[in-house]
Amino acid sequence: MNNTGETKKKILVLLGSPRKKGNSTTLAMEIAEGAESEGAEVETLYINGMNIRACQACWTCQEEKSAGCPIDDDMQIIYPKLAEADCWVIASPVHWFNMSTQTKLWLDRCFALQKYGKNPFKKRSPLP
Ligand SMILES: Cc1cc2nc3c(=O)[nH]c(=O)nc-3n(C[C@H](O)[C@H](O)[C@H](O)COP(=O)(O)O)c2cc1C
């Protein structure tokens, strides 16, 4: 609960730069501080410091009775956090006109996310 009696919003910040104190982190922390000052609960993950393997495109996660992604790495910690959060802040630098490798590793593995929560993408709409 926050100080107005509402349930705290959960914000998950994903830092996609290898530079832990880089520009994208600075911007993400501004958002995090703003959210915290409004009573949100913020958790920050530094993707580069986690063990996240590349999606192997096995499609196991897409099978009807699949339990999720079979790769046993830190994504198994991140999936429930993604499913529970009300909002994600994805902070990536531009690397070769695209998101960073670290961010893309994480994103590809989100192919399995629907197995970790009901409509994990649908419940999130862009900020107004
Ligand atoms: C491998 C690599 C590729 C990059 N490619 C681009 C690019 O395509 N376009 C661009 O504007 N900046 C590019 N940059 C510059 C970074 O986007 C820029 O330094 C950014 O501020 C880094 O963010 P960070 O401090 O959060 O890591 C590249 C940097 C690196 C290391």
Strand order of the largest sheet: 2-1-3
At the fourth level of CATH, the homologous superfamily is Flavodoxin domain
CATH topology: Rossmann fold
Architecture per CATH nomenclature, i.e. the level-2 architecture: 3-Layer(aba) Sandwich
Estimated share of beta-strand residues: 5-15%
Name of the CATH class = Alpha Beta
Helical residue percent? 25-40%
Number of helices: 3
Count of the domains? 1
Gap between N and C termini: 24 Å
Count of strand segments = 3
Q: Report on the biggest sheet.
A: 3 strands, parallel
Order of helices and strands: EHEHEH
Structural Rg? 15 Å
Low-confidence stretches: none
Structural class: alpha/beta
What ligands can be seen in this structure? flavin mononucleotide
Mean pLDDT comes to 93
Shape: flat
